[in-house]
Amino acid sequence: MTVVAGEPDYGIQATTPLQVLDPSGIKSPLIIKSTDPFKVAVEFTILSGLVPLGPHLSYEVRYFAERVGPGTDYDLGTVTKPTVAGQKTYNATTPTGSETVRDITAGTVADGLYTVGAIVSFKMDGATPTPYPMTVYVTGPAVEVYT
């Protein structure tokens, strides 16, 4: 990470590719029957101790599926949670209340081939939540959905 004079010294890193999991939380084979639910999760690490972790800083993970070829893209939903003081890594299995996993109900995505991804961003809480200048874009594996 390069720091430019006058810019804050902090950052975020996606530490593993986006994960697609079966309903029990086990890594999926990436070929999913349209009538089966599945889960998505991302792991990220906050790289600096200067970030004000705790209940006043929250993270938002927005998941999506982009169709490969013609067809519909899907918003898979959002996970929004407060950060935890002292905790820098967040993923599908971090302590309850700070995990990044999102359950996708059966039938959400039509048949086809998709690239699954996520955008992680942060906000400072307050009367008007203020964006915090850290964001990471994570692309995941190709997932085939079939009938």
Structural descriptors:
four-stranded antiparallel beta sheet; 0% helix; Immunoglobulin-like; five-stranded mixed beta sheet; mainly beta; disordered N terminus; 147 residues
Structural account:
A hairpin with a 6-residue loop joins strand 4 and strand 5 (74-82). With 147 residues, the protein is mainly beta. The protein is built from no helices and 9 strands. Helices cover 0% and strands 52% of the residues. It has a 5-stranded mixed sheet, with no helix packed on it. Strands 1, 3, 6 and 7 form a 4-stranded antiparallel sheet that branches. Residues 1-5 have low confidence and may be disordered. It has a single domain (12-117, 132-146), classed as Sandwich (Immunoglobulin-like), CATH 2.60.40.
Write the layout of secondary structure elements.
Blueprint: E1 12-21, E2 31-33, E3 38-46, E4 57-67, E5 74-82, E6 89-90, E7 102-104, E8 112-124, E9 130-146
Parallel strand pairs: 2-9
Antiparallel strand pairs: 1-3, 3-6, 3-7, 4-5, 4-8, 8-9
